[in-house]
Write a structure and sequence with these properties.
heterodimer; A: 268 residues; mainly alpha; Cytochrome C3; 2 domains; three-stranded antiparallel beta sheet; two-stranded antiparallel sheet; 10 helices; 29% helix; globular; B: 255 residues; two-stranded antiparallel ribbon; 11 helices; 4 strands
Chain lengths: 268, 255
């Protein structure tokens, strides 16, 4: 008898919990569907907060600015030669790594670029320049100053980085002496015409040359895209989900909202 | 006895949970927001930091801006959010040519200078009635600004800019008309013309944040949520023609 009513109580309890879950799920979701995300400011687009280990150490997270680094270096240099992952938090950089000359420390060593000094004593110099999240820091580089006079784009940083490079407004380094091992360049493959799955949309012209300038071959092949034509079948949903083109576009490279930058060819 | 009191507790829990479900989920779908006078429809009082900084809030009218620019210019190119006070507009950034400052720079439109302060920092969303009265000649609709903006655009009576760029990209030309089945028996389907929306908007104004791009995959796309400023309600409650105009979307509806 006791066992029975105990079981009954358990069932009733479970029912109540289930009812609570069913009732609360839509409340939690209410803010996340049917509305538009707020666009990032031009100076904030592509900024990455790095906080793998900062919390427990009581240090402010790092705010990494893509715009500042891409004005000087190719994407390939950091994402291939230095081994930075393509997703936030994916690299798990430690202070030790940096002091050993890996990752940020390949340049931020006091020679090529500033280094953090005196961090052991707690009287650090330069710390705030990277560990800036939530702090009022006066930076020596201003986005507005740097991008003044650059060709404009509609979205993202609102800077047409490709054109800026073509016009010679940027000189991109693709090599860190002692770290980069240069191979003879491959002949650049031809541009590709990609037919969308929805044939009411214009075709996509993919420029291998423009991408290779920044990325080499190895940033995209073979992980993101197979090398055989037609081998990778992907949809815009995949891209919006951060896969394929979405590995860069929408995070750092111009966002996917600029449809006509890729879907360029007239519907025939 | 224990069993019975258990049921009692469960029943009580259910009732309490029912009360905790927000009004959005309760069955009361047809409370349309009260419409302001036509000249104030789509007008906003922007006061994110103004009052806190001892400055009058900014009165912004959508109609005076949509005469000159399509929605995409401000809501995509300039990065204005779709909810008042959620865009972090600052004086510094305006002066650097962002947000309002992209046009209000003394060249394209009056600048962000001392003599013009009160033009925007007016403290009221009731603005420029005289200028609005001049729009009487535009085609009419029964609700909102009582102006049929789409017909006005198609007739060439207004010529809003498509872009602030020197060489704007060509429109995508995706003009598919969708018939959206209603969830309720007896309610005729809604029509969605891509072409009309493309005149004002980029694909990205709606996709993929508000609507999925794959047909019939947008979840919770229902009138109750539209009335909560989701989906069509992001625009069609406060700025684009209001939902009171049932037949414009559900043309088969008996009035």
């Amino acid at each position: 008898m006791n066992m029975n009513s105990g079981k009954k109580m358990l069932l009733i309890g479970l029912f109540a919990v289930l009812a609570a879950v069913i009732a609360l799920v839509p409340i939690g979701m209410a803010e996340t569907f049917g509305v538009k995300r707020t666009a990032k400011k031009p100076q904030d687009y592509g900024n990455v907060q790095m906080d793998n280990f900062t919390g427990p150490k009581g240090v402010a997270p790092v705010v990494f600015k893509h715009w500042l680094h891409r004005a000087r270096y190719t994407c390939r240099l950091c994402h291939v030669d230095l081994g930075f992952a393509m997703s936030r938090g994916g690299t798990r950089v430690t202070e030790g790594d940096i002091r050993a000359g890996l990752y940020c420390g390949a340049c931020h060593n006091g020679k090529t670029a500033f280094a953090g000094e005196g961090t052991r004593t707690g009287q650090g110099k330069n710390c705030d320049r990277c560990h800036s999240y939530g702090k009022e820091v006066t930076f020596s580089n201003s986005f507005a100053e740097l991008t003044k006079g650059f060709p404009r784009a509609r979205f993202g940083n609102r800077v047409d980085w490709l054109k800026a490079e073509e016009l010679g407004l940027l000189t991109l380094k693709d090599e860190i002496p002692g770290l980069t091992i240069k191979r003879k360049s491959l002949k650049k493959p031809e541009d590709m015409e990609l037919r969308p799955l929805n044939n009411a949309l214009p075709d996509i012209i993919f420029s291998h040359e423009k991408h290779a300038t920044w990325n080499g071959c190895e940033l995209c092949h073979p992980d993101l895209f197979g090398v055989k034509k037609g081998a990778s079948v992907y949809t815009m949903q995949d891209i919006f989900g951060g896969r394929y083109c979405g590995a860069c576009h929408d995070k750092v490279a111009f966002p996917n909202m600029d449809c006509q930058l890729c879907h360029t060819k007239e519907v025939s | 006895m224990t069993g019975r009191s258990g049921w009692l507790i469960a029943g009580l829990c259910t009732v309490l949970l029912g009360a905790a479900v927000p009004s959005s989920l309760a069955f009361n779908p047809w409370t349309f927001p009260k419409l302001p006078p036509p000249e104030e429809y789509g007008s906003l009082l922007i006061d994110r930091t103004s009052t806190a900084n001892n400055v009058l809030p900014v009165g912004f009218s959508h109609w005076s801006h949509r005469l000159r620019h399509t929605c995409r210019v401000c809501h995509e190119e300039l990065g204005f959010a779709m909810l008042v006070n959620s865009t972090e507009i600052t004086e510094k950034e305006n002066l650097q040519g962002q947000f309002c400052g992209a046009c209000h720079n003394g060249k394209t439109a009056f600048g962000h200078t001392a003599e013009h302060c009160r033009k925007c920092h007016s403290g009221t969303s009731t603005l420029a009635k005289k200028e609005f009265a001049r729009l009487d000649s535009l085609p009419r609709t029964p609700f909102g600004n009582k102006i049929d903006w789409v017909s006005a655009l198609n007739a060439g009576l207004i010529k809003p800019k498509q872009s602030l760029r020197e060489s704007p990209s060509q429109p995508m030309g995706f003009n598919k008309k969708l018939d959206l089945e209603s969830r309720w028996a007896g309610i005729p389907p809604a029509v969605f013309p891509h072409a009309v929306h493309n005149q004002w908007l980029d694909c990205a104004n709606c996709h993929p944040d508000i609507f999925n791009i794959k047909k019939k995959t947008t979840e919770h796309f229902e009138m109750v949520f539209i009335l909560e400023r989701k989906f069509c309600g992001v625009c069609h409650l406060k700025v684009a023609f209001p939902l009171d105009d049932c037949k414009r979307c559900h043309p088969g509806m008996k009035s």
